[in-house]
Design goal:
This protein is of the alpha+beta class. 32% of the residues lie in helices and 32% in strands. The relative contact order is 0.11.
């Protein structure tokens, strides 16, 4: 096994807690067109680079990551080469695992490793986990720097990895310094872009007067952005439905929170949709009023179609009688 340092995920640039994670996966058998190996880098749930066994190319997904790739061409090429080598290593690993487990068909091998850091308490720790078919398989005890496993079939692999003292020393260096170096570097690179980003856009939507009012927010950078409704300035916990957070093509997110309140109520009390996140200088608020609501306006084609259908029916009846 070789130490590969790549795929970094920094969690919440504006929070006090940060996490850097590496995700890789290889499948023992794939369908046509599906890559056997893939590696994705995310920054607070946003993809910043991507690699797979079909393209054989490391692709930056964010503008600041593209700048980093251009300024560090040799390093970027090394990262791409590392992924190609890692693909071969994992291909061998999953072949061995399938033989040990006497399994066939679609099988997957994943590795997740990285470190987290609390900027306030200065606490930090690393993690290194290997999964087979989504189940815990092997993990690295970073206190003793030895591999452990809950699976009997993995014991020969654990013994082999624990005997590789050179590799364990490299891992010790990575989790001692390297992991936190890259975590802070990517945090700095991304922070400049985040500070220049436009604020999210908030719209109040309603299909018809009897439908719930939906607070639709799009263009926010962080998946954990808080979107809520307030009644007369007080947070609400009922009569709400929060929809799934969806990605936009530009790497931002969108989400809708529906308010199930009759018009008589929100005309009597003040209801406000509030968007909050530490990256925003202040919360974004949209007060629910009749003027702020955007509704679907039915076109003239509906009554026209009904009129045409009635004429056709009358024509058919007249034809049959004559």
């Amino acid at each position: 096994m070789k130490l590969i340092i790549f795929l970094i995920c920094a969690h919440l640039v504006y929070s006090e807690f940060h996490t850097m994670i590496t995700y890789t996966e290889i499948s023992g058998k794939t369908t046509a067109g599906t890559p056997e190996f893939s590696a994705v880098t995310t920054l607070d749930d946003q993809q910043i680079d991507y690699y797979d066994g079909n393209t054989m190319e490391l692709i930056p997904r964010k503008d600041w990551m593209k700048e980093f790739a251009l300024k560090s061409k040799e390093l970027w090429k090394d990262y791409s080469d590392i992924r190609q080598k890692l693909q071969q290593i994992y291909k061998l690993n999953i072949t061995v695992l399938m033989q040990l487990n006497q399994s066939h068909g679609l099988r997957s091998y994943q590795r997740v490793y990285g470190c987290d850091w609390d900027n306030e308490t200065k606490d930090s720790h690393g993690f290194d986990r290997h999964n087979y078919d989504g189940q815990d398989f092997i993990s690295l005890d970073l206190k003793k720097f030895t591999y452990i496993t809950p699976v009997k079939q993995a014991e020969p692999i654990v013994q082999k990895w624990n005997n590789d003292r050179t590799e364990l020393e490299l891992l010790k260096q990575y989790f001692g310094r390297g992991c936190f170096y890259w975590l802070n570097k990517f945090l700095r690179l991304s922070k400049a872009t985040i500070e220049k980003a436009d604020p999210p856009k908030v719209s109040l939507l309603q299909k018809n007067p009897d439908s719930p009012v939906e607070c639709h927010v799009t263009g926010f950078l962080f998946r954990n952005t808080i979107i809520s409704w307030r009644k007369n300035g007080q947070a609400m916990s009922d009569k709400l439905e929060s929809r799934d957070t969806l990605p936009n093509e530009d790497g931002t997110f969108q989400r809708t929170v529906a308010l199930y309140v009759h018009p008589d109520e929100w005309m009597k009390d003040q209801y406000t949709c509030v968007v909050e996140h530490k990256s925003l200088t202040e919360s974004i608020q949209k007060i629910l009023t009749e003027d702020e609501i955007k509704r679907n306006r039915p076109g003239l084609y509906v009554p026209v179609i009904k009129a045409v259908v009635v004429l056709i029916v009358l024509f058919v009846i007249w034809k049959c009688r004559n």
